[in-house]
Amino acid sequence: MRLCRFNLGCAVVSIVALAIVLCAQPWAGPALATKYAGAFMEDGGGARPLGMGSAFVAVADDPSAVFWNPAGLALAEKHNIMLMHSERFGDLIDRDFAAYTQSVGWSILGGQGAGIGLSIIRLGIDDIPFTDHIDLDTNGDGSVDDEEILQLLEPEYRNQIIFKSDQELAFLVSYGETAGKWDIGASLKIVRQNIGDYSSLGIGMDFGLLRRQLWKRLDFGVKFQDLTTTYLSWSTGHNEIITPAIVPGFAYGIPLAELNAGLLLATSFETRFDNRRSADQYWAGSLSMNVQVGAEISFSEAVFLRGGFDSGWSDDALTAGAGFRIRPLTVDYAYAGKHAFFDEVTHRISLTATF
Q1: pTM for the whole structure
Q2: What is the CATH number of the domain that holds 162?
Q3: Per the domain annotation, does 43 fall within a domain?
Q4: What is the pLDDT of residues 3-39, one digit of tens each?
Q5: Residue 338, helix vs strand vs coil
Q6: How far apart are CA 119 and CA 70, in angstroms?
Q7: Does a structural domain hold residue 1?
Q8: CB 230: neighbour CB atoms within 10 A?
Q9: What distance in Å separates the CA atoms of residue 81 and residue 189, rounded to the nearest whole number?
Q10: Is 13 left (phi over 0), alpha (psi -120 to 50) or beta?
Q11: 3-class DSSP state for residue 258?
Q12: Residue 232: which of 260, 265, 206, 199 has the closest Cα?
Protein backbone atom coordinates (compact mmCIF):
# COMPACT_ATOMS: atom_id res chain seq x y z
CA MET A 1 0.00 0.00 0.00
CA ARG A 2 1.49 3.35 -1.06
CA LEU A 3 1.87 5.88 1.74
CA CYS A 4 0.49 9.29 0.97
CA ARG A 5 2.76 12.30 1.22
CA PHE A 6 1.37 15.46 2.72
CA ASN A 7 0.09 17.37 -0.28
CA LEU A 8 -3.12 19.03 -1.42
CA GLY A 9 -4.66 15.76 -2.54
CA CYS A 10 -4.13 14.17 0.86
CA ALA A 11 -5.41 17.32 2.52
CA VAL A 12 -8.67 16.87 0.63
CA VAL A 13 -8.95 13.25 1.79
CA SER A 14 -8.31 14.30 5.39
CA ILE A 15 -10.90 17.07 5.22
CA VAL A 16 -13.51 14.68 3.79
CA ALA A 17 -12.88 12.20 6.61
CA LEU A 18 -13.17 14.96 9.21
CA ALA A 19 -16.38 16.26 7.62
CA ILE A 20 -17.99 12.81 7.73
CA VAL A 21 -17.03 12.39 11.38
CA LEU A 22 -18.42 15.80 12.31
CA CYS A 23 -21.65 15.18 10.42
CA ALA A 24 -22.04 11.84 12.15
CA GLN A 25 -21.79 13.24 15.65
CA PRO A 26 -25.43 14.38 16.07
CA TRP A 27 -26.79 11.08 14.73
CA ALA A 28 -25.67 9.05 17.72
CA GLY A 29 -27.03 11.39 20.34
CA PRO A 30 -30.57 12.41 21.23
CA ALA A 31 -32.66 14.26 18.66
CA LEU A 32 -31.97 17.83 19.73
CA ALA A 33 -32.60 19.39 16.36
CA THR A 34 -35.53 21.67 15.71
CA LYS A 35 -37.19 20.58 12.49
CA TYR A 36 -37.25 23.32 9.83
CA ALA A 37 -35.09 25.69 11.91
CA GLY A 38 -33.47 28.07 9.43
CA ALA A 39 -35.72 26.73 6.66
CA PHE A 40 -35.80 30.15 4.98
CA MET A 41 -32.31 29.40 3.61
CA GLU A 42 -33.16 26.09 1.97
CA ASP A 43 -34.15 27.40 -1.46
CA GLY A 44 -30.75 29.02 -1.85
CA GLY A 45 -30.47 31.62 -4.56
CA GLY A 46 -30.61 32.04 -8.29
CA ALA A 47 -33.31 31.11 -10.80
CA ARG A 48 -31.09 28.74 -12.76
CA PRO A 49 -30.67 26.13 -9.96
CA LEU A 50 -34.38 26.25 -9.16
CA GLY A 51 -35.27 25.67 -12.82
CA MET A 52 -33.04 22.58 -12.76
CA GLY A 53 -34.88 21.06 -9.82
CA SER A 54 -32.27 22.38 -7.33
CA ALA A 55 -29.85 19.70 -8.60
CA PHE A 56 -26.92 22.09 -8.56
CA VAL A 57 -24.32 20.80 -6.09
CA ALA A 58 -22.19 19.26 -8.88
CA VAL A 59 -22.70 22.24 -11.24
CA ALA A 60 -22.07 25.29 -9.00
CA ASP A 61 -20.47 27.43 -11.72
CA ASP A 62 -22.15 30.79 -11.16
CA PRO A 63 -22.41 33.19 -8.18
CA SER A 64 -25.13 31.06 -6.56
CA ALA A 65 -22.33 28.58 -5.75
CA VAL A 66 -21.88 30.46 -2.47
CA PHE A 67 -24.99 28.57 -1.30
CA TRP A 68 -25.16 25.40 -3.43
CA ASN A 69 -21.48 24.43 -3.19
CA PRO A 70 -18.78 26.97 -2.25
CA ALA A 71 -16.14 24.75 -3.88
CA GLY A 72 -17.43 26.12 -7.19
CA LEU A 73 -15.83 29.47 -6.35
CA ALA A 74 -12.44 27.95 -7.19
CA LEU A 75 -13.32 28.53 -10.87
CA ALA A 76 -14.69 32.05 -10.36
CA GLU A 77 -13.72 34.42 -13.15
CA LYS A 78 -13.45 38.19 -13.02
CA HIS A 79 -16.16 39.88 -10.93
CA ASN A 80 -19.75 38.63 -10.77
CA ILE A 81 -22.94 39.95 -9.19
CA MET A 82 -26.22 38.04 -8.91
CA LEU A 83 -29.48 39.63 -7.75
CA MET A 84 -32.75 37.78 -7.19
CA HIS A 85 -36.18 38.75 -5.88
CA SER A 86 -39.36 36.74 -5.52
CA GLU A 87 -42.75 37.27 -3.89
CA ARG A 88 -45.52 35.04 -2.62
CA PHE A 89 -49.11 35.81 -1.70
CA GLY A 90 -48.87 39.18 -3.42
CA ASP A 91 -46.11 40.97 -1.56
CA LEU A 92 -46.80 39.36 1.83
CA ILE A 93 -43.68 37.16 1.67
CA ASP A 94 -40.61 38.68 0.04
CA ARG A 95 -37.44 36.69 -0.61
CA ASP A 96 -34.19 38.22 -1.82
CA PHE A 97 -30.77 36.87 -2.66
CA ALA A 98 -27.65 38.84 -3.59
CA ALA A 99 -24.16 37.50 -4.20
CA TYR A 100 -20.81 38.92 -5.26
CA THR A 101 -17.97 36.64 -6.35
CA GLN A 102 -14.53 37.14 -7.85
CA SER A 103 -11.29 35.32 -8.53
CA VAL A 104 -8.28 36.14 -6.34
CA GLY A 105 -4.55 35.95 -6.95
CA TRP A 106 -3.80 34.07 -3.74
CA SER A 107 -4.78 30.77 -2.15
CA ILE A 108 -4.84 29.49 1.41
CA LEU A 109 -3.54 25.97 0.66
CA GLY A 110 -1.27 26.93 -2.22
CA GLY A 111 -3.68 25.69 -4.88
CA GLN A 112 -3.78 26.62 -8.56
CA GLY A 113 -6.74 29.02 -8.37
CA ALA A 114 -9.15 30.50 -5.88
CA GLY A 115 -12.21 32.70 -5.53
CA ILE A 116 -14.19 34.45 -2.82
CA GLY A 117 -17.83 35.35 -2.38
CA LEU A 118 -20.13 37.46 -0.23
CA SER A 119 -23.87 36.88 -0.18
CA ILE A 120 -27.07 37.56 1.70
CA ILE A 121 -30.38 35.69 1.88
CA ARG A 122 -33.40 37.57 3.19
CA LEU A 123 -36.98 36.52 3.81
CA GLY A 124 -39.52 39.05 5.06
CA ILE A 125 -43.14 38.62 6.15
CA ASP A 126 -45.20 41.69 6.95
CA ASP A 127 -48.45 42.20 8.88
CA ILE A 128 -48.12 39.30 11.34
CA PRO A 129 -50.87 39.71 14.00
CA PHE A 130 -49.68 39.59 17.62
CA THR A 131 -52.39 38.94 20.21
CA ASP A 132 -50.41 37.75 23.23
CA HIS A 133 -51.15 41.04 25.06
CA ILE A 134 -54.93 40.58 24.69
CA ASP A 135 -56.79 38.74 27.46
CA LEU A 136 -59.18 36.44 25.62
CA ASP A 137 -59.82 34.09 28.56
CA THR A 138 -63.15 35.66 29.44
CA ASN A 139 -64.44 32.67 31.43
CA GLY A 140 -61.28 32.47 33.54
CA ASP A 141 -60.65 28.75 33.02
CA GLY A 142 -56.97 29.27 32.15
CA SER A 143 -57.29 28.40 28.47
CA VAL A 144 -58.58 30.03 25.29
CA ASP A 145 -61.14 27.99 23.38
CA ASP A 146 -62.43 28.46 19.82
CA GLU A 147 -65.32 30.68 20.85
CA GLU A 148 -62.99 32.99 22.75
CA ILE A 149 -60.63 33.20 19.76
CA LEU A 150 -63.56 34.36 17.62
CA GLN A 151 -63.73 37.43 19.84
CA LEU A 152 -60.84 38.78 17.77
CA LEU A 153 -63.40 39.45 15.02
CA GLU A 154 -65.22 41.92 17.24
CA PRO A 155 -64.16 45.59 16.96
CA GLU A 156 -63.36 45.83 20.68
CA TYR A 157 -60.66 43.17 20.35
CA ARG A 158 -59.73 43.61 16.69
CA ASN A 159 -58.53 47.14 17.34
CA GLN A 160 -56.11 45.82 19.96
CA ILE A 161 -54.26 43.55 17.51
CA ILE A 162 -50.68 44.67 16.87
CA PHE A 163 -49.15 43.87 13.49
CA LYS A 164 -45.42 43.24 13.29
CA SER A 165 -42.97 41.83 10.76
CA ASP A 166 -40.66 38.85 10.45
CA GLN A 167 -37.17 39.49 9.06
CA GLU A 168 -34.88 36.49 8.53
CA LEU A 169 -31.34 37.06 7.28
CA ALA A 170 -28.32 34.92 6.49
CA PHE A 171 -24.92 36.41 5.65
CA LEU A 172 -22.40 34.12 3.93
CA VAL A 173 -18.66 34.65 3.50
CA SER A 174 -17.36 32.00 1.10
CA TYR A 175 -14.05 30.77 -0.29
CA GLY A 176 -13.11 28.12 -2.86
CA GLU A 177 -9.78 26.78 -4.06
CA THR A 178 -8.45 24.24 -6.55
CA ALA A 179 -6.41 21.56 -4.78
CA GLY A 180 -4.99 19.17 -7.33
CA LYS A 181 -7.94 17.53 -9.12
CA TRP A 182 -10.39 18.68 -6.44
CA ASP A 183 -12.04 22.00 -5.77
CA ILE A 184 -12.72 22.64 -2.09
CA GLY A 185 -14.64 25.44 -0.43
CA ALA A 186 -16.40 26.64 2.68
CA SER A 187 -19.01 29.22 3.66
CA LEU A 188 -19.19 30.85 7.06
CA LYS A 189 -22.76 31.95 7.68
CA ILE A 190 -24.28 34.24 10.26
CA VAL A 191 -28.03 33.91 10.78
CA ARG A 192 -30.15 36.69 12.24
CA GLN A 193 -33.92 36.47 12.74
CA ASN A 194 -36.33 39.09 14.08
CA ILE A 195 -39.99 38.34 14.76
CA GLY A 196 -41.68 41.26 16.44
CA ASP A 197 -39.80 41.93 19.67
CA TYR A 198 -38.02 38.57 19.56
CA SER A 199 -34.72 37.88 17.84
CA SER A 200 -32.15 35.13 17.35
CA LEU A 201 -28.51 34.95 16.34
CA GLY A 202 -26.61 31.95 15.05
CA ILE A 203 -23.42 30.97 13.30
CA GLY A 204 -22.57 27.93 11.23
CA MET A 205 -20.46 26.62 8.36
CA ASP A 206 -20.98 24.76 5.09
CA PHE A 207 -18.20 22.79 3.40
CA GLY A 208 -18.09 21.63 -0.20
CA LEU A 209 -16.09 19.50 -2.63
CA LEU A 210 -16.13 19.32 -6.42
CA ARG A 211 -14.36 16.86 -8.70
CA ARG A 212 -14.67 17.92 -12.30
CA GLN A 213 -14.39 15.08 -14.84
CA LEU A 214 -14.42 12.35 -12.23
CA TRP A 215 -15.05 9.98 -15.12
CA LYS A 216 -15.02 11.36 -18.67
CA ARG A 217 -17.61 14.20 -18.57
CA LEU A 218 -19.08 13.16 -15.21
CA ASP A 219 -18.64 15.70 -12.42
CA PHE A 220 -19.11 14.92 -8.72
CA GLY A 221 -19.95 17.33 -5.93
CA VAL A 222 -20.89 17.11 -2.28
CA LYS A 223 -21.96 19.72 0.23
CA PHE A 224 -21.75 19.23 3.98
CA GLN A 225 -24.37 21.71 5.13
CA ASP A 226 -24.23 23.12 8.68
CA LEU A 227 -21.16 20.94 9.18
CA THR A 228 -20.42 22.25 12.67
CA THR A 229 -24.13 22.30 13.64
CA THR A 230 -25.72 25.76 13.56
CA TYR A 231 -27.05 27.04 16.88
CA LEU A 232 -29.76 29.71 16.89
CA SER A 233 -29.93 31.48 20.23
CA TRP A 234 -33.20 33.36 20.82
CA SER A 235 -33.71 36.36 23.06
CA THR A 236 -36.46 34.38 24.81
CA GLY A 237 -33.87 31.94 26.14
CA HIS A 238 -34.99 29.20 23.74
CA ASN A 239 -32.35 27.69 21.45
CA GLU A 240 -32.76 25.95 18.10
CA ILE A 241 -30.28 23.61 16.46
CA ILE A 242 -29.79 23.01 12.74
CA THR A 243 -28.12 19.62 12.39
CA PRO A 244 -25.75 18.76 9.52
CA ALA A 245 -27.04 17.60 6.15
CA ILE A 246 -25.14 15.91 3.35
CA VAL A 247 -25.94 16.68 -0.29
CA PRO A 248 -23.96 14.60 -2.83
CA GLY A 249 -24.64 14.97 -6.54
CA PHE A 250 -23.51 14.36 -10.10
CA ALA A 251 -23.58 16.33 -13.35
CA TYR A 252 -22.90 15.12 -16.87
CA GLY A 253 -22.37 17.34 -19.91
CA ILE A 254 -23.12 16.20 -23.45
CA PRO A 255 -21.94 18.40 -26.34
CA LEU A 256 -24.31 18.66 -29.30
CA ALA A 257 -21.89 20.07 -31.85
CA GLU A 258 -24.21 19.69 -34.82
CA LEU A 259 -26.71 22.00 -33.10
CA ASN A 260 -24.10 24.34 -31.62
CA ALA A 261 -25.65 23.34 -28.31
CA GLY A 262 -24.96 21.42 -25.13
CA LEU A 263 -27.01 19.28 -22.75
CA LEU A 264 -26.34 19.22 -19.02
CA LEU A 265 -27.90 16.52 -16.82
CA ALA A 266 -27.70 16.78 -13.03
CA THR A 267 -28.94 15.10 -9.88
CA SER A 268 -28.44 15.50 -6.13
CA PHE A 269 -29.52 13.70 -2.97
CA GLU A 270 -30.39 15.98 -0.06
CA THR A 271 -29.92 13.81 3.03
CA ARG A 272 -31.03 14.95 6.49
CA PHE A 273 -31.06 13.47 9.98
CA ASP A 274 -33.58 15.58 11.92
CA ASN A 275 -36.59 13.24 11.85
CA ARG A 276 -38.56 14.94 9.09
CA ARG A 277 -40.15 11.62 8.21
CA SER A 278 -42.93 11.87 5.61
CA ALA A 279 -42.31 15.60 5.09
CA ASP A 280 -39.41 14.51 2.87
CA GLN A 281 -39.54 12.27 -0.18
CA TYR A 282 -37.99 9.15 1.35
CA TRP A 283 -37.42 8.39 5.02
CA ALA A 284 -36.50 5.70 7.52
CA GLY A 285 -36.39 6.61 11.21
CA SER A 286 -34.71 9.99 11.65
CA LEU A 287 -33.02 9.71 8.22
CA SER A 288 -34.75 11.34 5.26
CA MET A 289 -33.81 12.14 1.68
CA ASN A 290 -35.02 14.29 -1.18
CA VAL A 291 -33.94 13.46 -4.72
CA GLN A 292 -33.47 16.30 -7.18
CA VAL A 293 -32.98 15.90 -10.92
CA GLY A 294 -32.60 18.52 -13.60
CA ALA A 295 -31.50 19.24 -17.14
CA GLU A 296 -30.38 22.26 -19.10
CA ILE A 297 -29.95 22.63 -22.83
CA SER A 298 -27.99 25.62 -24.08
CA PHE A 299 -27.89 27.07 -27.58
CA SER A 300 -24.76 29.04 -28.51
CA GLU A 301 -24.25 29.74 -24.79
CA ALA A 302 -26.90 32.43 -25.21
CA VAL A 303 -30.31 30.75 -24.83
CA PHE A 304 -31.06 28.18 -22.14
CA LEU A 305 -34.03 25.90 -21.48
CA ARG A 306 -34.33 23.99 -18.18
CA GLY A 307 -36.51 21.49 -16.40
CA GLY A 308 -36.47 19.12 -13.46
CA PHE A 309 -38.14 17.60 -10.42
CA ASP A 310 -37.41 18.82 -6.90
CA SER A 311 -38.10 16.30 -4.12
CA GLY A 312 -40.86 14.38 -5.86
CA TRP A 313 -42.25 13.12 -9.15
CA SER A 314 -45.69 14.75 -9.18
CA ASP A 315 -46.76 17.94 -10.93
CA ASP A 316 -46.19 19.82 -7.67
CA ALA A 317 -42.48 18.92 -7.81
CA LEU A 318 -42.03 19.97 -11.44
CA THR A 319 -39.66 22.85 -12.16
CA ALA A 320 -38.88 24.65 -15.41
CA GLY A 321 -36.99 27.69 -16.54
CA ALA A 322 -35.23 29.64 -19.23
CA GLY A 323 -32.29 31.98 -19.54
CA PHE A 324 -30.97 34.59 -21.96
CA ARG A 325 -27.41 35.87 -22.08
CA ILE A 326 -26.33 39.06 -23.74
CA ARG A 327 -22.87 39.56 -22.31
CA PRO A 328 -22.15 40.80 -19.73
CA LEU A 329 -25.74 40.19 -18.50
CA THR A 330 -27.67 36.97 -17.99
CA VAL A 331 -31.37 36.90 -17.10
CA ASP A 332 -32.84 33.68 -15.73
CA TYR A 333 -36.44 32.74 -14.95
CA ALA A 334 -37.68 29.69 -13.01
CA TYR A 335 -41.03 28.14 -12.21
CA ALA A 336 -41.53 25.66 -9.38
CA GLY A 337 -44.61 23.71 -8.32
CA LYS A 338 -46.51 24.27 -5.11
CA HIS A 339 -44.32 24.43 -2.02
CA ALA A 340 -44.95 21.97 0.81
CA PHE A 341 -45.84 24.83 3.14
CA PHE A 342 -47.31 27.37 0.73
CA ASP A 343 -50.17 26.37 -1.53
CA GLU A 344 -48.99 28.29 -4.56
CA VAL A 345 -46.33 28.08 -7.25
CA THR A 346 -43.06 29.97 -7.23
CA HIS A 347 -41.87 32.36 -9.93
CA ARG A 348 -38.28 33.51 -9.61
CA ILE A 349 -36.16 35.90 -11.70
CA SER A 350 -32.46 36.55 -11.26
CA LEU A 351 -30.00 38.85 -12.97
CA THR A 352 -26.27 38.10 -13.24
CA ALA A 353 -23.61 40.56 -14.37
CA THR A 354 -19.98 39.72 -15.17
CA PHE A 355 -17.43 42.50 -15.45
Answers
A1: 0.81
A2: 2.40.160.40
A3: yes
A4: 333 344 444 444 444 343 334 343 333 334 455 566 7
A5: coil
A6: 11
A7: no
A8: 24
A9: 19
A10: alpha
A11: helix
A12: 199
